[in-house]
Amino acid sequence: MSGSVNNVNFLNSDDNKHVKPSRPEQIVVKSGETLSGLAKKYGMSVNDFMAWTGLKKSTLNAGQKITLPMAEIPKGKGIMALIRDNNMTLEEFGKLNKLPKPYSEYKASAGEKFYIVNHKNTKDVTKSETKPETKTEKTDTQPKSETQTNTPAKPSNNGVHQNKTQWNSLYTPEELSANIYDKSVEHWGAVGKPDFDALIDQINSKNASSVIKAYTQNTKNKDQESLINTIVSEVRSDKQKRKEAVMHIYDALAKEYGAPDSIRESFEKELNEQFESFGMVNTKKLDETINRIMASPEELAKKMENDIDHKSSAVGKDSFNELISLVNKNNASEVIKAYNDLKTGESLIEGITSEIGSSKDSRKEAVMHIYDALAAQKNTPKAKRETFETELNDQFNSFGMVNTEKLDEMINEMLNSKSISSSSSKTSTTTAGSNNKIKFQKNPEVKTAAQWRRGAIAAAKNEAKQKYKEFCKANNIKYNENDLDLTPMERIPEPVAKNGTVVADISPVLQPTTKPNGKVVILNPGHGGYSSVSGNFDPGSYSFIKKKNGKYAPLLEYEKMKDYAEKASEKLRAEGYTVVIIGGHSQTIAKQDSIINLVQDLSKGKLTNKKYDKDDIVFVSLHADSEPGKSGSGVCYDSRFEDDTYLANVLMNTLNEDEWIHSSLSERVWGQRGLQVLYQTEQNPSVLLEVEYVNGSKSKNLDSSAFQGKFLDKLTSGLNRYFDLD
Predict the structure, then answer these.
(1) Residue 649 confidence class, pLDDT cut points 50, 70, 90
(2) Is 559 left (phi over 0), alpha (psi -120 to 50) or beta?
(3) Is 712 found in the same domain as 594?
(4) 498 in helix, strand or coil?
(5) Which residue has the higher pLDDT, 584 or 15?
(6) Domain of 279?
(7) What's the number of domains the chain is made of?
(8) Are strands 65-67 and 26-28 parallel, antiparallel or unpaired?
(9) By mean pLDDT, which of 167-171, 334-338, 615-619 is the weakest?
(10) Comparing C-alpha atoms, which of 32, 44, 21 is closest to residue 98?
(11) Is the pLDDT reported for residue 562 higher than 60?
């Protein structure tokens, strides 16, 4: 998986037995660090972590020091003495201290300190009090061995993803909204009290809209009072605390939907004016803004039509400006089409320009905002914007009413063009043209995409020459540089960039080519792409294959896995699956939360007209392992999660049904040889497949179309079994 020919064996590494884990006795909180993030590092829930460290508040401040309970082994004894003294289990002690397995064989050094949880003095947090840390964690004390071939029982979907990983919270939205309601009823003047504020802090960009909606639907909330109304009506609570709580909820929702800063300004202004007015705070306008942010494209279109139809000179007024600002690159085409579906006899552009009581500039600005949002969604060339704006200005400068016929033709042409949700498997959502200037964080030099590509090719060729020498030496081949075919290096692509920043290479949503089965597979061809930090291109592992012309060509992991992913996509779509392919440098994907955001967009219906449950979205990363002399396939998974464990076992067993494929399991728990892509997909079922060893004894398997066909057939069959589609 790395660029090294002799990479450490992914499946059988024992190196961790020789490394003493570092265990700091104190944490100094960094800016932006969260309690849930710290708790996750130690494999705990937030409640458990607070109880363990003695924290009283769920909020953290930069520079805050947190002491972690530790103890030394009693003189002349081993780790079992500490374990017994604190009523811990061996499994719990081993995981907490990140010991290599088998835990019982660990030899402590003199003076070595270990983390302890003293169960004699600490009350256990029951399962009913908190949700699981992430998906559904296993309760087995030992993971399944790699030699086991029996598939575990399929986990129930009940509650599997109703957890803090999906919602970034201790509670589901329904539970959180119910708890907030209960606290407001139990405590007069609840806002500002630690237990109430701790609940408000659980509202974030992953659950804000769901919590807000669940609050009004709570059966106890018979008056269907809004969450905002409940908070501001707590008149016994401090004014500033109430305003802060409202703005926290707003900011979480605005981040979830990408609402512009202009709306925040007007929202906060209205909030302050209401608090400064005499009497109770009226949240009507505040709630309206909240509901507008959460509005579907159809609802937005209807609200705009209502303003145009019933409010004189609507364009330019705060209400209409707010609606227009909510049209963005994610929903522009849907809003425009929804407006047309209202059958008003006029297009959205025509409706805006016909508001003759509104100023020319306000109407033109509104039209251009709609155009720019649609152009961003459709990747329309900038030159077309000039043509559109010229026609708009000409119409406003002419005598009489604005004629939008040509403007609507241009809009309709854009609507009918291929976009993010088209079905072309060869088109990325964003592509870097030869004139696209790009710079990186640690390499601030500004170059075009083509220039960065030329640099990557030159560096790759130099590396390949050096690696070829090592390859020849290791395989007793007479070295001759003329025997090296560097053609694969010429195929390194340009960076995929947006607004001068390198991004992941995400395909359109690829629709099924047969009857849809309602399931989505996100395929990730390992490596490839440029780091958004350094600008380096990552080819992954590679070796050399002798071709028919007698020359040795580099076998590049990223290139082969890209081919496997595209072929897998064809097979899966023919089985009714919807497919998205996401590739790129792991550093870029991780820093930009590319996979997390992709899953969120699919679950919210932002990329298609269908919303997918996260249980129905499976992530499969395809890689080629690296160690000379080795062979076989590996199914890597995070054993903390039942659905990952079940998926991994199903795929391993199905792959092994073919005599050509020899597959085994590899546990890759985050924090213990974990994998970044599996960490990024804790919200939904995921595995990483090592197809074969790129430089192993059977490396030609990777280059064999027959092996590829068999492997992908079994992968498809395994996914069908996982989803009970056989």
Answers:
(1) very high
(2) alpha
(3) yes
(4) strand
(5) 584
(6) 171-293
(7) 3
(8) antiparallel
(9) 167-171
(10) 21
(11) yes
H-helix or E-strand spanning residue 582: strand 578-583
Residue 251's contacts (CB-CB under 8 Å, 6 or more residues apart) are 264
Identify residue 213 by its one-letter amino acid code: K
Specify the pTM: 0.48
Q: Could you tell me the two tokens for 391?
A: 């026609």
Which ranges constitute the DSSP H helices of 634-686?
642-655, 676-679
Residues 6+ away with beta carbon under 8 Å from 199: 176, 179, 180, 183
pLDDT in tens, 62-91: 889 999 999 988 776 778 878 877 777 788
Exposed, middle or buried, 685 (CB in 10 Å: 0-12/13-18/19+)? buried
Query: Which residue in this structure is represented by tokens 């590739």?
Result: 583
Q: Is the pLDDT of residue 447 over 50?
A: yes
- 508 & 635 share domain: yes
At which of 231, 261, 293 does a domain end? 293
Question: Last residue of a domain, which of 275, 293, 311?
Answer: 293
Task: Write the DSSP assignment of 76-142 as a string of letters.
Answer: T--HHHHHHHTT--HHHHHHHTTPPSSGGG--PPTT-EEE---TTTSPPPPTTTS--SSS-B---SS
In this structure, what token pair is assigned to residue 431? 């592509």
| 374 and 345 together in one domain | yes
Query: Rounded to the nearest 5°, which phi and psi values hold at 75?
Result: -55, 130
Closest CA to 64 of 31, 22, 23: 31
Pairing label, strands 520-525, 447-448:
unpaired
Task: Return the SS3 of 591.
Answer: helix
Distances (CA, A) of 563 to 102, 236, 513, 559, 704: 39, 64, 19, 6, 12
Of residues 365 and 134, the one with the higher pLDDT is: 365
pLDDT in tens, 691-709: 998 887 788 888 888 999 9
Quick: pLDDT tens for 305-329. 888 887 778 888 888 888 888 998 8
> Do 264 and 363 fall within a single domain?
no
228, 46, 54, 200 alpha-carbon torsion, rounded to 10°: 0
